[in-house]
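Summary of Year 1 activities. Much of the first year was spent building the evaluation harness for sequence design. The harness presents a backbone, in tokenized form, and records the residue chosen at every position. We chose the following record to illustrate the format because it has been used consistently in internal testing since the harness was completed.
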């Protein structure tokens, strides 16, 4: 098959030369070629990998998946959509390189997800042409005719398995409307009924490959809704469902049936497996499971006793090397992460709250829009907005590359300049406000998150989370102090935003011009902010552009951080000393509790926490308004924390190693714990009385400029207050700390007979 050479705009024109690379064949023995035992067929499933194709310490990757399939008799590989958009690896070739790798891995079937349409009709159809497997979309129409294959039948031995692809109709609103000209989506349930009728007499099993998900607040028809819409007879024809879109893990049996429904989250963190078995009378049964990362990475990769060596990794290495000539170009060093995308796969921060990346991006838009207005001598207010769904990932700590920017802005959007009115601005902001109120922790309650939630620059607005839908905004004020009126349809405002927002919430606005690609504008603003990369990027936190009216959040909230043993994945042991920093504060030592956790009390709002000696250098983001770090998921886990090697951590109470001889082996005399002098009261506003909670150990190595030092004498070996008294199980030294106004109280716990 001839390969098409593509080019895209990525700060400069990048010509994809990967067509010259030899595409390896799928691994020997994969898929339908094996016929030793045709009574059992295993379907390995992926969904929403979003361009995460390589293996890592969190992602299984295509090479491992291909090897697993090659190691399994009668295995098929099926994807439920959103494969070719997301990470920079996908974006730089507009999905082409992902398709080529899927060819190499031996995929048999794929359903089109909503993000397969992000590059437009022509690019999608080009990728479909390159694919060596059918890309299904039974309900996807172009000019009222089927645009993609609606179904396919794969024969494994003597058995015919039919696959039907269904794409969410919400693609019409979740993808840039300008790229969907002529594309429509038929009803999911009616389409499924028609396709089941078409296949039921000619197949032995039918698998629905759906890009629908199980989040009823995000789509009009979930995979469960689809199945509920089928008759009992139609359900009897369905063997299994491969699902995607909601980025959740599904390992369910549909109510009242034996139909397994499988979805594996996102980013290749898991792998689905559906086993279809035919008995001697050709009756079919199916079971499913989701393999987590550890199970998939420890899978026995053998075929007839021979180790499987899939060629996909070599091909991935070739493509990556080619792309890195552009994507690997370094822009600057980043000292503070800019938060965007889904954090820990659970919290879509820029879709819920203001983030520092949202502020930075809209500042970049605003600067360019002001230059645009000056050139046209336009004397009207200038603002900028970016939809939260347009910021797909965070800007990481450390070296920042072009690829990092493209990871965040991977939709290929252009920034446009529009003329709008205050009434249009109010309406656009209201469209993204989906909260229903707050609880007493400050958590913003919502039934769903909205990609239309706007990050802003050039103005601030206040809103009531509990307000009526469409009337939540209480005020909008420009940076010059001008209050905007909700029903003002005459005042002109110039707004810079991406073309997705322009085509959706500002569809009736006058377009004045374009500023360039999102990724290019952000990249240039990074270089400007860092003097062409000669100084670090340092953007601390948000600047209160979006203000909650009648805020119910308490002044402080508590965060519990699990510390994991890097060697075995289990909780770190008790009494290990870890050094943490919050935002721009100083590193402070904490002591783990019996569960290997530490507890921090923070001022309300977003914070970034860093750990010295962490094996994973990724910092932790917490925010009581979004629930990141404060609300557990269904499995009871916070999905945050740090990983450390116990060998790198000292145990609390152990003497410090020192090359200096000790003056005395006996500690100086001091009063016992009941006589320890208390620290003087701080005059700083906002400080509270500290409490002695001995559930979590926390230790300070010194005092800040605003805090009086303890008058207690120091132990010459440990540098802390010595333990005295035979009947004392634990002594708590309470120290008041002022570190950038963040950590308000810390406690030090020491056991009598520590080691």
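For this record, the design step produced the sequence shown next.
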């Amino acid at each position: 098959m001839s390969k098409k050479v593509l080019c895209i705009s990525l700060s400069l024109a990048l010509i994809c030369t990967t067509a010259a690379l030899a595409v390896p064949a799928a691994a020997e023995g994969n898929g339908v070629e094996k016929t030793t035992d045709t009574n059992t067929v295993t379907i390995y499933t992926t969904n929403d990998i979003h361009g995460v194709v390589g293996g890592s310490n969190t992602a299984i990757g295509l090479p491992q998946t291909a090897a697993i399939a090659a190691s399994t008799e009668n295995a098929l590989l099926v994807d439920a959509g959103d494969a070719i958009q997301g990470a920079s690896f996908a974006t730089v070739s507009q999905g082409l390189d992902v398709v080529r790798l899927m060819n190499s891995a031996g995929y048999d079937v794929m359903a089109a997800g909503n993000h397969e349409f992000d590059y437009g009709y022509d690019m999608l159809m080009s990728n479909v042409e390159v694919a060596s497997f059918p890309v299904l979309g039974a309900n996807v129409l172009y000019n009222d005719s089927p645009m993609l294959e609606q179904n396919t039948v794969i024969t494994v031995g003597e058995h015919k398995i039919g696959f039907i692809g269904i794409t969410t109709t919400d693609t019409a609103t979740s993808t840039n409307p300008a790229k969907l000209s002529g594309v429509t989506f038929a009803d999911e349930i009616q389409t499924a009924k028609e396709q089941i009728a078409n296949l039921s007499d000619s197949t032995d099993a039918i698998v629905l490959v759906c890009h629908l998900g199980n989040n009823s607040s995000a789509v009009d028809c979930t995979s469960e809704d689809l199945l509920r819409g089928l008759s009992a007879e139609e359900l009897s024809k369905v063997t299994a469902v491969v699902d995607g879109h909601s980025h959740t893990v599904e390992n369910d049996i549909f109510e009242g049936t034996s139909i397994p429904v499988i979805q594996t989250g996102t980013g290749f963190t898991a792998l689905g497996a559906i086993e279809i078995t035919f008995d001697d009378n050709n009756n079919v049964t199916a079971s499913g499971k989701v393999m987590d990362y550890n199970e998939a990475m420890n899978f026995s990769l053998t075929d007839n006793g021979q180790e499987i060596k899939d060629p996909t990794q070599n091909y991935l290495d070739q493509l990556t090397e080619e792309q890195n000539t552009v994507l690997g170009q370094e822009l600057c060093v980043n000292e503070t992460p800019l938060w965007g995308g889904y954090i820990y796969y659970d919290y879509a921060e820029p879709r819920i709250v203001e983030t520092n990346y949202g502020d930075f991006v809209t500042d970049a838009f605003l600067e360019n829009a002001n230059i645009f207005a000056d050139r046209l001598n336009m004397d009207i207010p200038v603002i900028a907005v970016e939809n939260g769904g347009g910021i797909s990932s965070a800007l990481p700590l450390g070296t920042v590359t072009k690829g990092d920017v493209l990871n965040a802005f991977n939709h290929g959007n252009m920034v446009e300049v529009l003329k709008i009115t205050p009434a249009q601005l109010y309406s656009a902001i209201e469209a993204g406000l989906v909260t229903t109120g707050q609880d007493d922790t400050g958590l913003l309650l919502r039934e769903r998150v909205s990609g239309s939630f706007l990050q802003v620059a050039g103005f601030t607005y206040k809103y009531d989370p509990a307000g009526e839908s469409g009337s939540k905004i209480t005020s909008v004020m420009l940076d010059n102090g001008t209050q905007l009126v909700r029903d003002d349809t005459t005042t002109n405002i110039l707004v810079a935003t991406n073309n997705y927002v322009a085509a959706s919430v500002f569809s009736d606005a006058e377009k004045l011009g374009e500023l360039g690609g999102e990724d290019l504008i952000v990249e240039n603003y990074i270089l400007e902010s860092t003097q062409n990369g000669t100084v670090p990027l340092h953007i601390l936190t948000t600047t209160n552009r979006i203000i909650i009216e009648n805020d119910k959040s308490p002044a402080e909230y508590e965060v519990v951080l699990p510390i994991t043993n890097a060697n075995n994945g289990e909780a770190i042991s008790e009494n290990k000393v870890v050094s943490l920093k919050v935002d721009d504060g100083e590193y402070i030592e904490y002591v783990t509790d019996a569960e290997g956790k530490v507890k921090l009390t923070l001022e309300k709002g977003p914070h970034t926490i860093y750990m010295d000696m962490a094996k994973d250098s990724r910092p932790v983001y917490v925010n009581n308004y979004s629930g990141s770090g404060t609300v557990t998921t269904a499995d009871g886990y916070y999905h945050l924390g740090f990983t450390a090697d116990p060998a790198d951590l000292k145990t609390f109470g152990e003497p410090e190693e020192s090359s200096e001889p000790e003056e005395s082996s006996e500690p100086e005399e001091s009063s016992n714990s009941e006589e320890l002098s208390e620290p003087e009261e701080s005059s700083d506003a906002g400080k509270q009385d500290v409490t002695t909670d001995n559930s979590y150990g926390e230790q300070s190595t010194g005092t800040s400029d605003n805090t009086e030092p303890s008058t207690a004498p120091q132990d010459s070996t440990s540098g802390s207050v010595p333990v005295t008294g035979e009947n004392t199980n634990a002594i708590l030294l309470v120290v008041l700390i002022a570190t950038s106004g963040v950590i308000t109280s810390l406690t030090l716990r020491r056991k009598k007979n520590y080691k």
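The CA atoms of residues 173 and 232 lie 32 Å apart. Quantitative recovery figures across the full test set are reported in Table 2.
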